[in-house]
Amino acid sequence: MIQLQLFSTAGCHLCELAVEQVHNLPAADNIQLQIIEIGDDDQLVEQYGIRIPVIKFSDDSELNWPFTQQDILQKIAAADLEL
């Protein structure tokens, strides 16, 4: 199973779109998405506040908004993760 983290915050419309993109990927059943609320951590706000939504992959690489489903799939392939 592929582990992804999505850095997000409450009321972020773009973050909601990013969640939809991940949930609608082919083989989405093989993806576990952990949504991380940055508003609860000052360090995360500083690091991601103006970049969210951001997807972090298990190899620690990140994908900043704007991104498409194709971008997510390419990043999964580049990280040598298997759907």
Q: What is the number of strand segments?
A: 4
Text of the CATH class:
Alpha Beta
For the biggest sheet, the summary is: 4 strands, mixed
Which structural class is indicated by helix and strand composition? alpha+beta
> For the record, what is the CATH homologous superfamily label?
Glutaredoxin
Low-confidence stretches: none
Arithmetic mean of pLDDT: 95
Number of domains: 1
CATH-defined architecture: 3-Layer(aba) Sandwich
Q: What is the element string, with H for helices and E for strands? A: EHEHEEH
Radius of gyration: 12 Å
Approximately what portion of the residues adopt beta-strand conformation?
A: 25-35%
Shape: globular
Q: For the terminal residues, how far apart are their CA atoms? A: 7 Å
Question: Any idea of the CATH topology?
Answer: Glutaredoxin
Tell me what the structure shows:
The chain has 83 residues and is of the alpha+beta class. The chain has a single domain (2-78), classed as Glutaredoxin (3-Layer(aba) Sandwich). The protein is built from 3 helices and 4 strands. Strands 2-1-3-4 form a 4-stranded mixed β-sheet, covered by helices on one side. A hairpin with a 4-residue loop joins β3 (54-57) and β4 (62-64).
